[in-house]
Amino acid sequence: MGDYLYNRKQKEDEVMAIIDYEFQDRDRLWEALQGKGSLVTQIGGRPVRDNRMLAMVGDKIVGLIIIRNENRDGRTIAGQATTRVAELACDSRLVALCDNTGLTQWINGSPFNGGLVSKDNKAATIEAIVGAVFEDAGEAVAKRVMENMGIIERTASEPV
User: Fold this and answer.
1) Cα–chain center distance at 7
2) Which tens digit of pLDDT belongs to each residue from 119-133?
3) What InterPro entries does UniProt report for this protein, alphabetically (predicted)?
4) For residue 89, what are the contacts with CB-CB under 8 A and spacing of at least 6?
5) Would you list the domain boundaries of the chain?
């Protein structure tokens, strides 16, 4: 299904405003917005089924950044860092963040669900956005976007 039918530019612009990051390669963001059941099958001339691959990258990046924050804050015991990852990046929290930030309305899901976006699509899209930002601009920018989405808190010692 064509980008026109999904209002691609509007969706990308709205999401970039929410996360306060402008993509160099907007195809990455567009892929991140393809939930399970999306009818988008190609992006930039390559086949894309959904945002699963970016979500897997994002899941690992979210965990890495949380662990690095824990280490920086002096909580170096592995169990504590692992607990923080579980607390901050659990699916139920990511689902709530997706809804609370307004990202849910911009996800391309199955047109057969009456416009409803499943919980797993919401959590995967948050992770996919982080993965897309990481691939587009690296870890520091992915961390800033995580702060902007509320996954982690902005630290006072870091520039805004």
Assistant:
1) 19
2) 999 999 999 999 999
3) RNase_III_sf
4) 59, 62, 63, 66, 151
5) 4-149
Distance of alpha carbon 39 from alpha carbon 65, whole angstroms: 32
d(CA 105, CA 80): 34
How confident is the model at residue 160, as a pLDDT?
A: 44
Query: Would you say the pTM of this structure is higher than 0.85?
Result: yes
3-state class of 46 per DSSP? Answer: strand
Token pair for 116: 């409803």
CATH class of 4-149: mainly alpha
> CA 132, CA 3: separation in Å to the nearest integer?
19
Q: How far is CA 31 from CA 71, 125, 156, in A?
A: 32, 9, 33
Inter-CA distances, 8 with 18, 49, 51, 74, 143, Å: 15, 16, 15, 43, 25
From the list 36, 72, 73, 27, the residue with the least C-alpha distance to 55 is: 36
